[in-house]
Amino acid sequence: MSPNYMRSFLEGCLRPPTVIGQFHTLFFGSVRMFFLGVLGFAVYGNEALHFSCDPDKREVNLFCYNQFRPITPQVFWALQLVIVLVPGAFFHLYAACKSIKQEDILQKSFYTGFYIFSVFLRIILEAVAFWLQIQLFGFKVNAIYMCDVGALEKKFNISRCMVPEHFEKTIFLIAMYTFTVITVVLCVAEIFEISCRRLGFLKTQ
After folding, report:
1. Taking Cα atoms as reference points, which of 94, 86, 73, 93 lies closest to residue 166?
2. Nearest to 44 by CA among 23, 13, 15, 75
3. Residue 85: which residues within 8 A CB-CB, separation 6 or more?
4. pLDDT digit string (tens) for 74-123?
5. Paired residues of 161 in beta bridges
6. Is residue 9 part of a domain?
7. What domain range includes position 46?
8. Is residue 42 part of a domain?
9. Is the residue at 136 inside a domain?
10. With contact defined as beta carbons under 8 Å apart, do 204 and 106 qualify?
11. C-alpha distances in angstroms, 188 versus 99, 118, 129, 195?
């Protein structure tokens, strides 16, 4: 890919054709990623080390932690951010290869429809991630986790495990749910803005 294509691709990703799309990029790229990268590491960085069960043995702790966290929240949310970016990145890559200017996207029906489709895909992916987050993490992190250790062939079947910083993790969970809802609202608002521009209610940039 030539430097001109790369420049057009980056410009499209950073400066979408709608005002709300640009705000979405700012929110998604700065606030959400900063929150996950900085605060997420502070809250979840040493969780596995501080996760302890009764009896406090490495074998039991590791087994129960893997049961408690099939996937770590940081990895899940990082995957969510990357996957949600794919539809928009694919559209802007297409626009760069076809030498489509940003101001032309809302002028031609095919380009507009393709762009709206990419926004719809973002909404669907966010909704799926929202549902998966509920299934994996719920809305609250309890201080005690009851672990089934029967597979370890121990004399006991249930082990009590202490979850470190459970209240902070609950707050973080709620924040990530909130970010997902905000992103979906921005995507819906962007489609509404595009519709208004196509109908002539708003001036095209």
Report:
1. 73
2. 75
3. 28
4. 889 889 888 988 888 888 887 777 777 777 777 878 888 888 999 999 99
5. 53, 145
6. no
7. 19-204
8. yes
9. yes
10. yes
11. 27, 12, 17, 11
Residue with token string 């940081």: 74
Cα 171 from Cα 113, distance rounded (Å)? 38
Question: Within 13 A of 17's CA, how many CA atoms are on the CB side?
Answer: 30
Residues 148-177: pLDDT tens digits?
A: 887 776 666 888 889 888 898 899 899 889
CATH for 85: 1.20.1440.80
Domain assignment of residue 150, yes or no: yes
pTM equals 0.83
Number of domains present in the structure of the chain = 1
